[in-house]
Every structure is written in structure tokens, then in C-alpha cells.
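From the pipeline queue, job 12 of 40. The input is one protein chain; the requested action is below.

Action: predict structure.
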Amino acid sequence: MLDRKSVVHCCSDTKSWSINFLKERENLAAELIKRALPENLRGRFTLIDATDEPVARVALHEGSLDFIPIWAGEGFPKDVEAALAVNARAVAQRPEHVVVTARRLSSGARAFLEGRRISWTDGTGDAHIEAPPAFLIVREHDAVRRQRVHPLFRWAASTGALAEYLLAGLTQDPGSLPPSSDGHTAVRIPPSGQLADVIAWSPGQVSKCLQGFDGQGWTVKTGPTRGRGAGREFVDPGAMLTSWGVWYAQRANQCQGAHGLWRDVDDFVRQHLQGALVDGEWAVSGWLALAQTAPFATDVPNLTCYLAAEVYDDELDRLMSDLELRRVSAGPRVTFVRAEPQVLAQRRDEKGVPLVSKIRLFGDLLKAGARGADAADHLRESSIGF
């Protein structure tokens, strides 16, 4: 049996180990920030052990730059969310000074952080660090740099719709996926007029969007400038998907939340929703679509359902009444989303339920917080493939 002295000694050792472990993480996080700095600033770097949280300070000729290093382990979205929760006060009070670090931040984690304008760096040497008033570091490997948006390119409704349609087309035929981003591929992109008919934008606007994609290195023109033989091919769909995902995760959809009483989401869809809607005017996304496409979570907490624009605009109240649903502004069990043309044009059938494309599903999962970002990474690796 341990006596009181032994217990006190044991507790003291445990506390000492915990403090040392935390110090090691703080030191590692600070070291990664230091590595990301330009060489002329590394000699001015000091880790200050402040009372509330450690501060990594860079002395300047006038004043200093302060960073709050936060360690996020392996760098998956769930690791990042947990690290931010532990350091909630610093994130809330001084978000512009926070720098999240990890061994290797996943693409979902990077999108999660950039969507919240939080700086980051990791063990690969990649970094995106901003600090007031005008300090900026963007250091990335070539493969990642291609995913960044050229300053002259801007995501908008038209470019977003077109990119989604083109990327979803690739997922419908896995055998046609480009093997890498190092060379041109034989995956040809349909003519502007054909694309315009699907996404409901003018051929001229579609042509401008495609030129923007060319400028990013995501697509390339082939053959003569005009006429027979002129065309366009994919070069780097993976980079396009990453960039599109960052934009889409921050974009607000037109939607309405609702609440109802049912036990199982899948049963509700098959026994009630399916009978209330006409085929072709709806499709499921979110956790249920993920469960049907690439199982990841054991539970399906809520439902996301896209409706054709005319149904959403004219029949939503009738539909909710028929299904005994009531409108809510928070905590919905079902969210109805007004569908853009390409969303329903690319719906797919899984076990008798219409689902959105894997690309739209990827984007919707990125909107669902850190758990959703983890699920998006899983979907991308296991089912999208680029």
C-alpha cells in the first residue's frame, strides 16, 4: 500500500511530466514558426514563457511581432479543432496572433484554418502566416503552390458552378482521371456552349471562366485557337478541387432549416420524403450521402436535401406541411437547400436514393466544422481520387 508520502511524490512526478510534455509541445510549435521566418529574422526570435500562454516574439527595428504558437499534433481537422478549443481564450481575444502548427496539416485542416483566417505552419515547411499590420509569409512546396489562386483570378458563382460541374464529371468515370499534375491529359473538356446549357450561364461567361482556369494551370488549351481541333484538357484537377473547396466552404447557400420527429434519417427519406417529391427535383447531401458513398461515421445526425429552384421557391411551405416539419433557425434536423442547375444535373442514384455529386458532397462536408473536414478528407482519399 502506498503511504501519503509516496502518493504525494507520485503526483508530483506526474505533474512534472505533464509540465515537461506541454513545454516540449510549445517548444516544437515555436521552432516550426521560427523555421518559417525569413533567415534575417530567425536570429531575432525569442520564446517568452508568459503567464497565460507562451508568446513567440520577433524583435524588429521598431517594435516587435508576437505569435501565439498552438500545437495540433498530426494536423488532421479534428486535431486542429481540439487545439483551438484548448486555447479558446487566445483564439477569441487575439486571433490575428495565433499560429497553429502540426507535423503535417491535411488539406482539410488548412482549408478549415484559412476559412477562419488563422495562420498556420507545419513540419513540411509549408506556411501561411499573417500578422498585423502588414506581415505575410506564404511558403509552400511546388505541388501545393499550384493549388493557390492567382491574384487576378476570383472565385464567383459562375466559376464555382463550372468548376464543380467539370470536377464532378471526372468522378463519374474514375478510369479517366489524370494520373498526376506533371503533364497534359487526355481528359477533354466539353465546348463552352455545351457547358453553358448545363450551368445556366452564357457561353461568353463560360469562356471567361475557362480562361481563368487556364491561368491557374488547372486546364490547358490544345490545338488551334479556334475551329476544328481546338479544345481544352485537364492538367491539375486536384489543385482545382482544393482551391474550390476553400472557396465553397466559406460560401453561404440559400437554405431553410426545419425540425421534425423521426428516429432514423434514412427511414425518413425513404418512407416520407421520397413520396412527397418528384424524381429529378431533389437530391441528398451531407452525412446520409456520405454513408451511402464512403462510410465514415456511425451515426447520421441530420439531413441535407437539395430542392430544384422552383420547388424551393414555390412549394417549400407545402412540402414542410405535408412532412409535418416546422421552420427553425438553429439545430435543424433537416436543411433544405436551393439547388443550382448543375447540382441536380449531376445527381446519382445509390440504393434508390438520389445523391448529389461527390464534389458537392465534399464541399458540403467542409462546411460542417472539423468533423466534416475529416469526413471530406476521407471522401477525397477513398472515393474522389484526386
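Job complete. The chain is about 45% helix and 20% strand.
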